[in-house]
Specification:
The protein is mainly alpha-helical. Helix content is 81%, strand content 0%. The protein starts with a helix and ends in a 13-residue tail after the last helix.
Amino acid sequence: MADVRDMYMAHAFMRREFGLLPQLVQAVAPGDTARAQVVGAHAELVCRLLHLHHEGEDLLLWPRLHERGGAAAEAIVPTMEKQHHAIEGANAAVVNLLPGWRRTGHGGKELADAFESLNAALLEHMAVEEREILPLAAKHVTAAEWKQLGEHGMRGTPKKDLPLAFGMAMYEGDPEVIKAVLAEAPLPARLLMPLVGRRLYAKHAKRVHGTATPRRSTAIAH
């Protein structure tokens, strides 16, 4: 059956990056378009990864839990679907504000507030998902079906962004979980991705966060 540990790794990445984004945006001086471009490009990437992650669950996870999870699933899956709808709306609000902010460096307060709203909704959702949904998925979803969630995200992500996206997730990932995620990848990817992903994220984090070792999700005030 599904090994759901990789979901905790994905959630740590989201807690960290979305938790840091309001402060990152607020720290950009009005009119500093160079810095707004750096932070904005990072924000657009993580917003896109969030959208793909939840789209995969909408298409591939909720229907299977509705079908197989019985009363336990029916008690919680509709709530998860409603939360996804709210998060998608908050994500869309952020994505709509980003281009203008990147172009002008103005409107940072509105954008930071939008990120705060998105992050609050996301934190609530992930906590419930970890507590209620992952035990159900481990019981009712096969390993092959669970793998399809990751494949959906990879298909929707430009190939040039995949190593960085994996590096973002690996930053707080359990080595055993990372090994399990890569177990069926071609040998070159199994050997190179951990090294390349870490290096890419360290370089990216230095540019975006000012350090190659940004605060971990457990150290960010929720």
